[in-house]
Amino acid sequence: MATEEQFALLEDQGDDVIGGHDRLENDKEEPSKKGKQEKTFSSGIGLVLSCLGSTVGTGNIWRYPRIVAAHAAGGGALVFLIVWCFFLWLWSIPLIILEYSTGRYTRCSTVESMNKLAGPSFRFMGAWLIIVPFAIGCYYSVVVGWCFYYSIYFLIHDLPSNLDESYKIWNDLQDSHWPAWCHLLSMIVASLSVIRGVSTIEPLNKVVVPILLSIIFFSFYWALFLPYASVGIERFFTPNWASLANSRLWLDAITQNAWDTGAAVCGYWTFSIYMRRSNGAVRVGTLIPIGNNFVSLLCGMLVFCCVFSVLLRQSYGVDRILTIIGDNGPANTGLTFIWFPILYNNITGGRVLCPLFFICITLAGFSSMVALLERGIRVVIDFGVRRVPATIVVSLLTFFIG
Length: 402
Prior knowledge:
This protein is 74% helix and 1% strand.
């Protein structure tokens, strides 16, 4: 049975969610359940940018346009967008609010939270929740390394003019030692970014996320005025109501929400450990996924504008263009690493915009990588290990498995 003290604590937290009295409004730290002082985000903007940084990643920039294109064939993608928004409210936002509320209440990682809420027998559930994001982190660091390589490569070299040249750049990368070195570099930078917890995570995201969003907004505005961009936008928002009967559309809509928002992979849970009481779980848990999916929408329109603009001028048919956007390619990289350099080579200003595009993906992947690392580190800390050795252990495991 819960004690009166626990009920009082829950009541205080409920008041804070709806904007009630905040007893610790001016505190920089809050007591954890272990009685020690826990660092918190110093400002609401720091929390918002850090959470956006953890969710805006490769799922928004290169996976989302590919999934939309798969459902734009045969009429248009509007029905997919409607179902995608439906699952944002039905599935993603409730899960994210639950994560924020649980992490803020327990001030612990998933493993220790399950112990506190349900008892030691349920620790395995918390461990299972952290295994998936840890596995994603091992692969994610490799992807960030690829993006970083392409950012530097196209600052120095010319853009490819055809598929053979583009595939040669990709194959040369995979046949070299550069993926391993770039993987190592991304791990070192990400590890240094979490070495002091929220004290380094917050200022990092206050710099990285605004730059990332600025590049996205600038590229989107520029793409809207390309020749034939309107054809891509029209296809993006044209309904094909018959596709509602397609079960694949519903499955892709809910799985894309998982990739977009990061719901149920415990990033929000981990960051909510460092929330202050003035950061209402419902308010933050609603605004962050909406903002994140808005970024996905911009990225999808950006890709459609660019690809339709270039390929319609080369007499490609609409169905062929959608196939290209949805092309998986090697390791699901077809559009991003194979086609986009070619597309930018055929656009005025593409020589500048192509490196910017890959810098954008690098920043998005890096900010998500920081959040993925912090999940595992927090679990190790809750077992009594200090942050620096915990960071070293988790980083080494992530690097060698990746």
